[in-house]
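Worked example 3. Consider a protein that binds zinc ion.
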Amino acid sequence: MEEDTITASFWRYSSGMRTKTLFLLWLLLPLFLCGQETEFDRWFTGGTLRLDCLREGSALKDTVWVERFIDRQAPWHGSRTQLLDPFDNGDYRVVVRDARTGRELYSRGYSNLFREYKDTPEGRTESKRFEETLLVPMPKGKVLIALQKRDKDLRLKDQAVIEYNGQINAKRLTLNTEHLTLNTKRLKRNIKHLPLNTKFDVAFVMQGFEGVSDSEYQQVCGRMTEVLFGKEPFKSHREDFNLYFVKGDAGVEYNTFGADRYAMTFRLWQLHDLLGTTPCDHIIIVLNNEKYGGGAIYNFYSVSSLHKMAESVLPHELGHGIGGLADEYVDEDLSYADLHRTQYEPLEPNITNLVDFQSKWQHLLPAGTPVPTPDVKVPRGENGPLGVYEGAGYSSKGVYRPAMRCMMRDYAPFCPVCRERLEAVIGLYIK
Ligand SMILES: [Zn+2]
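Given these inputs, the predicted complex is written out as structure tokens:
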């Protein structure tokens, strides 16, 4: 059997997968016995725990809880060495702590749709319920799982702490037998970069492709692969990625929060049921239509359509979804909440309000660069000189960006600041 076929079948059927996983574990057993136990092995089984959470409330008040713990019955796809999130980014964070000592074993920052809902007119007063799904390494012993959110000073505080002691509420509910349909040579090349723990695993969820011919479907998968790897820094990391394609309904609809082009899903549990055991350091939902639009939320998921601008739009969205980067453009209609004009630095690495510029890209700035930097004329498709240019994060005044042009502003290449962060984030998954 050729290697590609083995890789594809590995993920197709869970029973086969379990057998092969056991076989792999058996092969690796002597390593565990002879080698020193790693931090990861000390605390985690190597499996994946899925937390289906509910978050309910408005801007006035909100609560969050874990509705059910699910054994994803899949090997842990994230890093086994980069367990703690080094970035102070995202409005929320999940933290797994040793129940006895309180020591932090695993953490990841992220954002969600509720954060955006709070800023809508309805969300200021009307309470609404949102699904959220978190994946963490399966703990070996008793742990405390903290769901954190930012307080008004942007500090992360425990919002809910749940004890977990192996009480699984559900096994994986449905088995998705269809979730790899990769037959062309080109696509196969991208999925065989196992092992999972040192690759950035991207799960593409293909919505609206039922009834599409195989050849057309493969063509779209091929196009999305090239879109993903079309721009730096993703281009240079092609070999560091595993790609998976899953067909099904992720529940994405346009007109999210009344914005015509904003296409997102509220059905996170359905999305993760569909993913089943598919490894996913990041999820990209692809819509089978050519309408302009999409969206992305940091460490949550990204959405793209097949619009002719997808080659530019998707990398921009991945800037948000993977990098946690801010928009560098100005749009006074969106600066409703005066988000970035506060006494605190914005969380995103690529904008500053000069409250604490040291913590941002000063280390990259050439000596003698004036702060703020006067605008210069830069051709389309170039960044121009690094500086601190006014107009970013939707505001024309008081918020600054690193370059005249950038992917996060006008689809130019990612500026050095954005690129530095994306490199660092990718590094979190491939080491
Ligand atoms: Zn940038």
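Take a moment to read the result before moving on. Residues 328, 350, 402-403, 406, 408, 414-415, 417-418 surround zinc ion (CB under 6 Å). The CA atoms of residues 365 and 386 lie 6 Å apart.
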